[in-house]
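seq as requested:
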Amino acid sequence: MSPARIAAVIAEAEPDIIALQELDVRRIRSGGVDQGEEVARELGFSFVHFHPALRVLEEEYGDAILTSRPSRIVKAGALPGLPSRPRLEPRGALWAAVQIDGAEVNVINTHLGLRRLERWLQAQMLMSDEWLGSEACRSPVVLTGDFNSFPRGRVYGLLSGRLRDAHLIGSTMGRPSATFPSQWPVFRIDHMFVSDDVEVVSARTHRSETSALASDHLPLVADLRLPETDREASASRGLPERLQA
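C-alpha cells:
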C-alpha cells in the first residue's frame, strides 16, 4: 500500500471521516512508516485513531479512523477468533465519537475474518453490549468496514437487522455495486450500516484511474445527513457529511 496513492484516491472523494483497514505501522515490509499518519498528513487531517489487530514486537497492523473533525476513541479491541484455528489473522474493531456541528456520531470501523464461523462470532460480538448494544453507543451510529460477507450472508443479515445498509438505500447506480476486487469488482463485501435517524443522501463505490491501483478494494463513499437538534438545526440542513470506508 502506498500512503500517497491512497491519500490521492481519498482526496478525490473529499470525505469528512475515513475508515481504513489493513494499515501497517512500523512494519519492515512497508518501510517502517506509520501508514495512517502518512495518509492523514497527505490529507491535512488532524485526528488519527488506530487499533492494532496484530502486534509483533514493534510492528503493528490494523484499522484506523481518520477525520478533520474533533473526535475521541470510545473503544478499541479484539474480536473473537476460532479457538481451533489459533493461527488465523487476528481481527478487531475501532469505535470513535466524532463531533459534527456540536453533536457526536458514533463511528465503528472493523475488518472481519475469512471463515464463516469466525465472522459469525465476530458479528455477534459487535452486536453485544460491548459494542452496538452498549448504552454509550447512542444514535447516530455508523458501522463500516470490510465484512468479508455477501449481502445474502448470515453476518450481513444479522447486522442489517439492527442497522440499515447505506449502500443499498443510497445507491446512485440503481443498485449497489461490487467493491472487490478493485480491478474487476464482482463481490460486495464492504458495507456501511447506519442507524434509523441517519439520512442516506447517496452512496457509491468510487472508481477512478487510480482507485483500482491504490487498493484491492474499491472505496465505498456515502453522503450522510445527521439528525437535527435544536442547537444545530440550521447547520444540519446544509451539506451532508461524507464518510468513506
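Confidence is low (pLDDT under 50) at residues 230-239.
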